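Exercise 7. Given the encoded structure of a 339-residue chain, write a plausible sequence.
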């Protein structure tokens, strides 16, 4: 099956053509980071407008670079949600137009399912598996007994981890996106400062907003007391506390589910060098399981992962028509369930 896919849930306008969930014939990503940098974060209205401006060109490039024509496309897949509603609408309207124009079947898919299936571009998924999704908009721990079912074990109660990185970077005046900058600084520092340990109610849930406020209070206290402090050490202290919040829950999930065969990671924060080290540590501690952190091109938002998610949903009986609408809070547990 050859799938044409569109992704526009946040600040990347993307389109791709993928054959049989594995062969990426084209994958075009137009990032808006340079524009949002000026505002210190993604501005939803600006993001939607840029999607409108860019989407036609991104679609044309994806089809041209695939070397195929519209006659060769078997299915059109689009991110229906979750994400920024104005941004999602642009992709959904474009996909509906293409489906109508070229008389193709259409399917709307879950962005988070896409991040999970992106691992298929890098490894063979083995079930039951544990998926850790860490991005600017999501932090979730998911149990999959097979390829089509998602059970959310835990999720963030407040900020997503990437959002916490970005907000802390703003406090430290490092610019947007903050994740890569904190990651780099932390490599030169030591986690010597004590910051508030997050407290989430559920066994596998996360919380980052208290930690983020803790960084702000630390900086204000130091300034008030005229004390010097090292930004590298503060970055390392924040990063170690935030990642330990995640990995404590990951270890607990692995211990409580001895049947797990694999753990995979998805989302922009999986680029983090310390997170990757921590996954290696897990692999040593639990040799009975396989661990996979895909290359960055698969971790950040792209449409190739939406093509894979589309083929899986469609094969499972999901199909959309012209009534398909964007859903900013689309539930992952409903993915792959025909209406
Ligand atoms: O998945 P993504 O590209 O976009 C969505 O949120 O959908 O993730 C972007 C997030 C940003 O918050 C960014 O700061 C974070 O991923 N990020 C990182 C790193 N690279 C990107 N966070 C920590 N360490 C990194 N190296």
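Solution.
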């Amino acid at each position: 099956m050859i799938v044409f896919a569109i992704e526009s849930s946040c600040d990347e306008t993307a389109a791709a053509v993928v054959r049989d969930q594995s062969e990426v014939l084209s994958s075009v990503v137009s990032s808006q980071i340079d524009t949002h940098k000026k505002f210190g974060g993604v501005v939803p209205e600006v993001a939607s407008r840029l999607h409108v401006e860019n989407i036609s060109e991104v679609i044309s490039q994806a089809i041209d670079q695939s070397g195929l024509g519209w006659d060769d496309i078997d299915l059109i897949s689009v991110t229906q949600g979750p994400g920024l509603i104005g941004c999602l609408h642009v992709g959904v309207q474009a996909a509906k137009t293409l489906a109508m124009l070229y008389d193709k079947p259409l399917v709307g898919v879950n962005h988070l399912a896409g991040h999970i299936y992106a691992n298929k571009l890098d490894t063979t998924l083995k079930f039951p598996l544990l998926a850790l999704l860490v991005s600017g908009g999501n932090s979730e721990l998911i149990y999959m007994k097979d390829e089509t079912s998602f059970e959310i074990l835990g999720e963030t109660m407040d900020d997503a981890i990437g959002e916490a990185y970005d907000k802390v970077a703003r406090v430290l005046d490092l610019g947007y996106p903050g994740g890569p900058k904190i990651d780099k600084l932390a490599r030169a520092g030591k986690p010597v400062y004590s910051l508030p340990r997050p407290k989430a109610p559920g066994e596998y849930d996360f919380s980052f907003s208290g930690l983020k406020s803790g960084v702000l209070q630390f900086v204000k206290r130091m300034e008030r007391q005229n004390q010097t402090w090292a930004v590298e050490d503060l970055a390392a202290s924040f990063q170690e506390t935030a990642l330990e919040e995640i990995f404590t829950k990951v270890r607990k999930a692995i211990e409580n589910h001895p049947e797990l065969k694999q753990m995979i990671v998805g989302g922009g924060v999986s680029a983090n060098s310390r997170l990757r080290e921590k996954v290696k540590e897990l692999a040593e501690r639990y040799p009975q399981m396989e661990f996979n952190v895909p290359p960055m091109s698969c971790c950040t938002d792209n449409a190739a992962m939406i093509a894979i998610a589309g083929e899986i949903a469609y094969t499972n009986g999901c199909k959309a028509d012209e009534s398909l609408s964007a859903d900013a809070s689309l539930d992952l547990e409903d993915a792959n369930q025909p209406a």
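Remark. The longest helix spans residues 231-256. Students should compare their own answers with the one above.
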